[in-house]
Amino acid sequence: MAVVDQYDCPDKTGRASSGHLGAAARIQPTTVAMLVWLGLLAMEIIAVLALCDFRLFFTLDDAYIHLAVADQILSGGYGVNAGEYSSPSSSIIWPYFLALTEALHLGAFGPLLINVAAAGATILAIIRLVETSGLFDGVGELPFACVIALLLVFSASAVALPMTGMEHSVHVWASIVTFAGLVAAARGFAPTSLHFLALVLLPLIRFEGIAFAGAAIAAFALLDQRRFAAGAALVIVVTLSGYVVLMASRGLPLLPSSVLLKGYLTTLDQPASELPAIVRNMLRSVSTSYGLRLIALGLAVAWCASLLRADRKVLIVLLTVIVAVGAHLACGQYGWFNRYEVYIMALAATALLWGVAQLKPRLSALQWSRVKIGVVFGLGTAAIPYMTAAVISPLGASDIYEQQYQMARFAKSFYRDAVGVNDLGLVAYGNTNYTLDLWGLGSEQVRKARMAEAYGPAEMAALADDHHVGLIMIYEGWFEKGVPSSWTKVAVLETRSVTLSRQNVDFYRTPLADAAAIDAALRAFKATLPSRDRLDIITP
């Protein structure tokens, strides 16, 4: 049996899609996309370096939480502090990927390299899929192909997303390659091992992936790939069960603290709401620009599915994506450098292009011209948040450098003792001293207290005493009930903030601290700050 490339499948006529185009014409959209992406990514990294005094930083402090967890995994633990279990990671498997890069001593370059590779592979997968579907077939389609290629770079957030240092670039890749597997199955070809890997990774890399993974497994079964579907389902069930057992053995909840404390489906942010969580999330979806863009893309895919309903296999593929879109509208999140929803936006955009390609032979020249205009307008509108994210990403990295990195320097190089924070990440990563997370991502005690609505100044003071914490660095405004009266404010770190929730970090001394030692550390630290930062030391 001949081996068929995972994307270069014949179309319904038996010919290779785009086969009547010259080789140069077929390769041009891919070349354009890759060159544009590489150029923009290089500019992004250069801008970050220029703003961060020639140091490379991610746009989110959360990335360093995963690196801290990875270090603890290598030491036989799980969390951010030695000997204390916690579950701050938003992904099941991402910390284990980073444990491999940490073992190679790659540091922050580990997640960056993985994300850049995933982003590049995603662009290649999408462009090759739409090329081989026949979307760009015909005379004079090259300008349309190049515009679509450019828009797809942003639709997948291939410029901004890798700079978050998080797992989302891999999630986008897994979603697109799983869709490519569905397309291959619909054309009568067996999905490959790469499709299998992408499918089983979906729920392991992000919990949101469970919805698309479940829908895809059902679709593969309906597309006469029952063994493939059963095998993927078995691997997913076994790995998720293993994760549950592992968390239970460590006394940790099924879902990580980041999901429990930040998730839209929790009632922590709206304890008095009588509306079901899913209803509240649907209302969020229809009231935000992100949700409305996703709804518009989903309706466009549904339009294609309606017109193509006579083709059962095509209908199955498109309905699978529509189910995933609906699941995100009901349960998903948005924002934070647009990283939460990018996988479903990229998936819906890819499904739309593929669906339009199936419609193309049925359309007149005038109808096709109108559809092309609509597609470009739709994808362009959907890509706006990711273009914006690419522009502000260097500023986000600069914020991390000027605030969290400076806090980490103070904790590790000047104070050199246990500290308490509410923004976990760089302070904990590579810190041999204890880091108390007063917000709850890296502390089960705090998480449980917050979720039980039994958390305030008294509990904060007790935790600091229990863990022998003498210095606290927090956003005072995050704590509506205030801070313990026994703590003394000793300094304020003032930073320029574009993307962070607070510009200023408040430093407190607890009763356990040596006042003279903290004052000396603060004064030594102040002399080393970047010119854009300011440390106001409060004298008694």
Give the assembly state of these chains: single chain
User: What is the number of helical segments per DSSP (H or I, 4+ residues)?
Assistant: 19
Look at the helices and sheets and give the structural class: mainly alpha
Beta fraction of the residues?
5-15%
Portion of residues within helices: 55-70%
The rounded distance between the terminal residues' Cα atoms is 82 Å
Strand order of the largest sheet: 2-1-3-5-4-6
Low-confidence stretches: 1-26, 268-273
Major beta-sheet overview:
6 strands, mixed
Total beta-strand segments: 6
- Average per-residue pLDDT, rounded, comes to 90
Notes on the structure:
This protein is mainly α and 540 residues long. The chain is 58% helix and 5% strand. The protein is built from 19 helices and 6 strands. It has a 6-stranded mixed beta sheet, covered by helices on one side. Helix 1 runs parallel beside helix 15 (365-402) and helix 6 runs parallel beside helix 14 (342-359). It is elongated, with a radius of gyration of 25 Å. The N and C termini lie far apart (82 Å).
Architecture blueprint of SSEs:
Layout: H1 23-51, H2 62-74, H3 94-103, H4 109-132, H5 142-155, H6 168-186, H7 193-205, H8 209-222, H9 226-249, H10 257-262, H11 277-287, H12 289-307, H13 312-331, H14 342-359, H15 365-402, H16 404-415, E1 419-421, E2 435-437, H17 444-451, H18 457-466, E3 471-474, E4 488-494, E5 504-509, H19 515-526, E6 534-537
Parallel strand pairs: 1-2, 1-3
Antiparallel strand pairs: 3-5, 4-5, 4-6
Helix pairs in contact: 1-4, 1-5, 1-15, 2-3, 4-6, 5-15, 6-7, 6-8, 6-13, 6-14, 7-8, 7-9, 8-9, 8-13, 11-12, 12-13, 12-14, 12-15, 13-14, 14-15, 16-19
